[in-house]
Amino acid sequence: MLILAVMERRRIEVEVGYGLEEVLTDARIGRLLDQELIPFFRQGEFGKGLLAGVQGIATLIGAGEAARQPLPPIPTEPLPEPKTFLPLATFLFGLLMGLLAVTGLGALGWWFWRNWRRYCPECRKPMRLLSESEDDAYLTFERQFEESIGSVNYRVWRCDDCQTLDFGRIVNIFRDYQKCPQCDNRTLTVTTYRIVEPTYETTGLEEIHKICRYPRCHYSETRTRRIPRRSRQVWIGTGGSGRGGGFFSGSSGGGFGGGG
Predict the structure, then answer these.
(1) I need a labelling partner for 35 at 20 to 30 A (CA). Which of 17, 87, 130, 156 fits?
(2) pLDDT higher for 222 or 6?
(3) Can you name the residues that pair with 247 across neighbouring β-strands?
(4) Contact, 245 vs 229, CB < 8 A?
């Protein structure tokens, strides 16, 4: 077997002797070059690519020699019973039922956490969940503002006997608000503006604006951030009769091609 790589021509060829043509067919060598050797060549790692290609070809030769060996005798002892596997439809149905059970239990737990009756830590009597209009009387201005913009929803339980209150807090993950580092309220908005578009040769630039919408905070911050350069798309191709491999990159436009 001969592997010839011509760097100036960006070309690689593999020639085999008559004794290996049954094992190292054109299709097998072409597939091996595409998967094992050419990815390293495309990155400039020619030594690693050649080593990976030779190791892959050695594996093919070893598999071919093993196929030429005579088959072992048929055992006289009875073979073990084959294992029974669940049909695909049964497996998928069981998986679906398991997912429904998990999601159902999660939804049920969420409902209980929101609405299940709580007991007063002072007198141990049941507490009453206040409505949205009733709980505003017990919320601070900051919490009322968070509810007004939809970033947080507060739940208030009240003991009508001893007037004890219990608060619950549910963050709305579907609204683009973050915690303000100055007032600790979830009222911070983050907006990004693209100033300079990145190219293949130069980096880009973007400006990030952070503003707290809480009227008593007045927190704002503006900073710039570099955008990495764009990466070129890389794809692999083969040529020739199957014994050669090739690679093409967006930057060079050349490639290693195979010969017949």
Answers:
(1) 17
(2) 222
(3) 236
(4) no
